[in-house]
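Input record (Table S2, row 495):
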Amino acid sequence: MNVRFSKEGRGEALAVMVAEGGALSPSAAALDERLGGGLARAIAAARMTGKPGQIAELLAPPGLDASRLLAIGVGPADKLQALGVERWAGHAVKRLLTSGVQKLSLFADALGGVSAAEAAAKAAVGARLAAYRFDLYRTKLKPDQEPTLRDIQVVTDAAKAAQARFEVDNAVVDGVYFARDLVNEPPNVLHPESFAERLAALSELGVEVKILGETEMRKLGMNAMLGVGQGSVRESKLVVMSWKGAGKAAPVCLVGKGVTFDTGGISLKPGAGMDEMKGDMGGAAAVAGAMKALAGRNAKANVVGIVGLVENMPDGSAQRPGDIVATMSGQTIEVLNTDAEGRLVLADVVWYAQEKHKPAAVIDLATLTGAVIISLGHEHAGLFCNDDDLASSIAAAAAAEGEPVWRLPMNAAYDKMIDTPNADMKNISGKPAAGSIVGAQFIKRFIKDGQAWAHIDIAGVAWKPGPYEDPTSPCWATGYGVRLLSRLIADKYEN
Ligand code: BES
Ligand code: MN
Ligand code: ZN
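Output record (BES complex):
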């Protein structure tokens, strides 16, 4: 999709903003005047009040070249923020994507707290996010199912400034696309080996990519991670992606759970819905997408993304419940449930991150527990953090980017729940209580004293069931985490 910014709009379709209460944006008011009040009458006839996502559509408006004029609600004008503009543009794209229209002009006026340049850049962001499709395996799309929209023209008084902002934001959208593609890919196509190959391609953007196989991991003592993958015919991979944008500063390590398919292993999951476990690499996808975003926008920070890629399969050589494994840290784990595998992967990967990179912070993202969906649904990710300052920075970045988190508690009483007489710890508590917290406490056992660390449990947000109400997240895979991480790095680690 092509995106351009210019002062005038001549699309086949035009989209304007209407605030709650029916107030027209300046561009909408100007068009209404050319139509002799026709736009305001259409809005009234549609009983449109300006709520976000409401649309009044005029076809072949008399006196205009355009084939369609869309008045789209943005909610209360004084409360409008960047995300609201993204969704406004997203609604326009959602309506027109397969409509036959090829060229859309978005009249992105400054409104509320959003400047002209910001409104224009964010309209472009929202348009691109909404235009995302995963059609790779659909060989029989009917003509009316194929996207037709090709050109987005954002109409603005601040074209130059908007273009400059968009160049940065667009790199982040590319990262979101990358993460969505990875999560959407089927598990026969995306396995640890092919995932690692896709990450190797990030070197074209200046990211240094190192791939470790099982032999190297065995030498390092990463037996917890290797145990998860030992039932798979695919070789487990550890991929280290380094972006150096800030000289000698200690890096931030972003760590991702990359279980390319989670059957549960010998502790086999029930069959219904198991296909969703192709998304169990959503943490790794978010980290990969963030690395792509950081490189694409030339971030002035040192960031290392590390993902543990494994496939959790039942097999004659698979790990058994009751196995005891020695981790890279030296600590031992009694594996009482082979389906609590994400924490086994992370145990070794966060330790590797600390040993090799002496990071300023370790932030892991993982589709770790079904329990976080019980707690928070698909609206918030669960945040666990041993550093209040880091936690509030993450929460702020998350809210600003529309990828919200909710912090959950940790303490010694929860930690005790993974004690076992047979090893240093067990990988489940064996009780249903506080499942997400127990998972976080387990990872914390592999965080060194004084190391700033956050764990974000994204099991409820890496993908989501339809209907897809937010037009900027139009399919199963959300790409959650890419925006959050890119913004966190920008706000806390770049200056
Ligand atoms: N990948 C799952 C968690 C999950 C569940 C993610 C649903 C997304 C949607 C994880 O590996 C898992 O199986 N966790 C178990 C832990 C339990 C055995 C302690 C779970 O949540 O049931
Ligand atoms: Mn599992
Ligand atoms: Zn899993």
